[in-house]
Known about the structure:
Elements: E1 2-7, H1 14-27, E2 32-38, H2 44-52, E3 56-60, H3 66-83, E4 88-93, E5 108-114, H4 127-130, E6 134-138, H5 145-158, E7 163-166, H6 175-184
Parallel strand pairs: 1-4, 1-5, 2-3, 2-4, 5-6, 6-7
Helix pairs in contact: 1-6
Amino acid sequence: MKLVICAGTATTGKTAVLRGVVPRLQKRGLAVAFLKIDVQFAEEDELFAREFSIPTRKVYSGELCPDHCNVMVLGEALQWAERGGADVLLVETAGLCLRCSPYVDGGLGIVVVEATSGMNLPRKIGPMLSLADIAVVTKIDRVSQAEREVFRARIQDAAPTVRVREVNALYGIGIDPLVDHILATADVGDKLLLRGNPPVGTCTICVGKKEIGWQSHFGVVRALDNQTFYRGE
């Protein structure tokens, strides 16, 4: 079975991209399963079940980062998809933690970014971009050709090995190359590892401390004059 993890911040068009991918995979004779990971609300699983008649699941990360939740549930999700006879498991994750990467070795990592988000976005999203295999640029019809070229160049500056694919998901433009990438991806193995290194420390705010000021915390702290921070690989 092939594993595809599609990440990206809210409103980038992840669901629209995958809605174009699923019927094209089905036309190739592949059975598809879909898992949605979000923080507290999602209905994409219901949409995909109705529209494509495929098995779907949904997980709310709640107090967890969605990328951390992905690590926790992905093993069981793969077993669920295999029991259902899926050839491809598509995972759509909120990808809200910009310190982390939701991708795993052996799967295909896709990050969806919107061309309207500003020229500096590729410099801001860290491992979610730099550890992906493909960067899908959406909403290309809303910017000029010059802006598209600058945005593509910024992606390549931030992540030189990432393949850039521009799409207009609402009209299905640029979806077929994504399907080709999925078909060329090897099946996942029995043991999966998170791609890249996780962040190096635990934040005491995340574990429940409410006090204001770095003096009240320990572990990884940040003072106003200290701008040294973990950048991943």
